[in-house]
Amino acid sequence: MRKIFAGALVVFLLAQALPVLAKNSPSLTPAEMRQLKKEAMAGDASAMLSLGDAYHYGRAVRFTSDPAWAAYWYGRAASQGNVEAQTRLGDIYSDPEDPLYNEVTALLWYKSAAEKGYLPAQYSLAMLYENAKTINPDYSLAYAWCVKAAQQGDEQAYETLDGLYIYGASVHSYDEVLDHLTIKAEAGDAEAQWRLGKSYMRGDARQDISKAMRWLEASADQGSAKGLYYFGAELLMGNNLPQDVTRGLQMEKRAADMGYVPAQFYWAHNYPAEGETPDEGIEKMIFGWWLAAAEKDYSEAQESLSYYYANGQYVTQDKAEAWKWHLLSFRSPWRQLSWQKDNFPGTPVPSLSDFEKAEGHRRAEAWQAAHPGPYWPRPQ
């Protein structure tokens, strides 16, 4: 079976790769730098953004990172309304280790891009409101901007809302959240138990890995799908607990059988276990999971279906259907971000005829017409 590691946990990790992708892009030669500067001086905002990246990430040959020059070129592009540059400026000014650190300025630039609907700025603004050190945190605004980002398909925001903002805009401090969760968890509330475990793991009010594992296990022992998912993942990774792949997979499978899509992704990625022979019946079951998740608008599952239909794996080959799901996988605004398109373009459908492409377009439009609601919320 083709291994596809998807789901909220994975996309979260991909999201963390954004600055790394920019940083590790090929270095620019002196000639390329001169050409960029020429275009930037002529008013090209995209060239200004590229120059800012070169100085920010030290991508210019014979140059190291230079925050001042990065901020200068980002500022030139940002003043033209370039939302990526505005967000990069927010990143610079919100970094306590940057010599230009200034949360007030970061807030202004993040807010400018966020109000234009730019998804990364919305989540970054939420995190600044939540974690501000030199300005007053505002948990209500953090929650509001996190919701906006989640509504556009930002998996980080989705995860944050799911695990932290249990009381929504009424949250005023991490300590308050911890107190509420502890009371419920000690009373046997399985949902509060996994949420409390995640809170201790993240260190929202205070970090305590031992308590985190204890509460995640308590939730899993009660049969909570998310408790099983999170505790199973810990057993599989072996970072905070002794690794136990067999037990971890059993927990992920239980959560998957309950219909919890991230567990289905995670279990499928780790199947078959080392030394285990693949079972065609199980792989067909996994295909059924992908189909159900795709109908719930999970872009990762939609891309997986595209692969299966294109290659006739576990289903009759249908390239038009493959193209349909490939198109739909980019419906999420999150997948429309340029770095997502460039670095995770999806699987192309080979040897696609004009008729198959047109038919795929028609089917995708019909699917969208039958699913007119917004990308958020995704049913579980």
TrEMBL record:
Keywords recorded for this protein, A-Z: Signal
Domain of life: Bacteria
Pfam families cross-referenced by the UniProt entry: Sel1
UniProt entry tagged with the keyword Heme: no
Keyword Signal assigned: yes
Range of residues in the leader sequence: 1-22
InterPro entries: Sel1-like, Sel1_AlgK, TPR-like_helical_dom_sf
Protein name: TPR repeat
Organism for this UniProt entry: Asticcacaulis taihuensis
